[in-house]
Amino acid sequence: MPALSLSKGRRRHWNAALLAAGLALGLAACGRAPADLVRVPAAPAAALLIRNVTVLDVATGARMPGRDVLVRDGRIAAITATGAAAPGGASELDGAGATLLPGLIDMHGHVGNGSAPSWLNKMPDPERNLRSYLYCGVTTVLDPAGMAPQAFKLRDRVAAGELPGPRVYQAGPMITAPGGHPVAILENLVPWWLNWYLVDHFTRQVATPDEARAAVRGIAGFKPDVIKLSVDSIPDDVPRLSDATVAAAADEAHKQGLRAVAHIGTFADAVTAAEARVALWVHGVYKERLTDEQVAQLAAYGVPMVPTTIVFDSYALLGQGPRAPTPLETETVAPEILAAFDHPPRSEASEYFAPHIAKLRANRAAWRDNVRRLKAAGVTILAGSDTQMGVFPGPGLHRELALLVESGLTPAEAIRAATLDAAAFLADGREPEVGLVAEGKRADLLLVEGDPVADLSALARIRAVIKDGVPLDRRPLGQSFE
């Protein structure tokens, strides 16, 4: 999904959502502002005891009050009735009145994208994005499109402990048709002297099944976690991968020991991807309302879906009135950036993107209804935000969870979509290490005030974020750690 186009006279300005994928990851960090939002303690305690907390079983939605949770060596060592003795050298967290649940998983969280309005020409900051995810309780991210090799280097630096951030699963360059999504967008929004670099590093354009197989083999050399296929047209008149090319790319991914995930927009896109045996639809059907027969057909494929309702809502509502920030947005995003969404330039909905935006506005009710009926038909819904303009890293996932509830999921089901079910997909048939508060699981945890099953907004009232068993230091924007 692209950032909204600028007027014709301003298309040479950088697009904050798509430029981020290439430029920010390729630039040195010189001149960057000091780290904010999250800091990892220099000398964490040997163990952590969370006292008298209510543990949320995300598998069932049941709440288990009066528990002590002991964390040691980055894992949950014990869950007992409250009153346990703290081991020597352990730190303690008061869990009274709070709920402990797994850290959240964003199944469409672009680490390298910027989220400011494109007309502000703000440079994105991937390292700050990582901290913003953590601040908001997001401890794992699937990034289904990034620059190569920069995105993989960032993923590996986080895994090595060189950067604070959520665990990152990276796809790298997305495979698309010549001139397809997102190539057409880049060519319309980015100056020629930068466009060639972005297109070359962010995409792999293929016209035939053989070219698709070669592209998959090339990306496999970076050791991606998944392969991303663009099976959609944005705008509607740009080329799209043929069914045979999609099938060849997905098959080659399987031969390389990888799963393919597919960006879709229509029922036909979803069928093409499913027939090619992709593992995940990384958007929902957002361009049309599904018939009951189409819902049944898609459900029969057994492919999980990440609807990313928030990104479509964000563009559909741009310029339609004031954009009220959420509490997490006010804690993590500069006020001038949030305020800018209330005053887009008069020519923002340019001729190039006007039909696409109009379609999004017309289909707001349809895609919610699609999610509701697909979920009822048995499709596994996973939570993802599609971080980009107007969708902030961390707060965007919280907005998506609220929209999933609007689309018919219960709060418990929405939470499961961002924890256990997401973790199960990422584990790819293995026992998930995260996504559940249980003995032996990795201690990526979120401690929130109140009961998020009764009131989903409690997820934003964060008392502590715990990553690898260590409670992180958190400070809202503007507050120093010193």
Which keywords apply here?
single chain; 482 residues; alpha/beta; TIM Barrel; eight-stranded mixed β-sheet; five-stranded parallel β-sheet; 18 strands; 18% strand; disordered N terminus
Largest sheet, strands/sense/barrel: 8 strands, mixed
The secondary structure category is alpha/beta
Q: On the 0-100 scale, what is the average pLDDT?
A: 90
Number of helices: 17
Q: What's the CATH first level?
A: Alpha Beta
Q: What distance separates the N and C termini?
A: 39 Å
CATH superfamily: Metal-dependent hydrolases
Count of individual beta strands: 18
- CATH names the topology as TIM Barrel
Portion of residues in beta strands equals: 15-25%
Q: What percent of the residues sit in helical stretches (DSSP H or I)?
A: 25-40%
Query: Overall 3D geometry?
Result: globular
CATH arch. level architecture:
Alpha-Beta Barrel
**Low confidence ranges:** 1-33
Radius of gyration: 22 Å
| Number of structural domains | 1
Question: Topology of this structure?
Answer:
Layout: H1 19-26, E1 38-39, E2 47-57, E3 62-72, E4 75-81, E5 90-94, E6 98-102, E7 104-106, H2 126-135, E8 138-143, H3 150-159, E9 167-170, E10 174-176, H4 183-189, H5 192-202, E11 203-205, H6 209-220, E12 227-230, H7 243-255, E13 260-263, H8 267-275, E14 280-281, H9 292-301, H10 309-317, H11 327-332, H12 335-340, H13 354-362, H14 364-376, H15 395-406, H16 411-417, H17 420-427, E15 445-449, E16 462-467, E17 470-471, E18 473-474
Parallel strand pairs: 2-5, 2-6, 7-8, 8-9, 10-11, 10-12, 12-13, 13-14
Antiparallel strand pairs: 1-18, 2-3, 3-4, 6-15, 15-16, 16-17
Helix pairs in contact: 1-5, 6-7, 10-13, 15-16
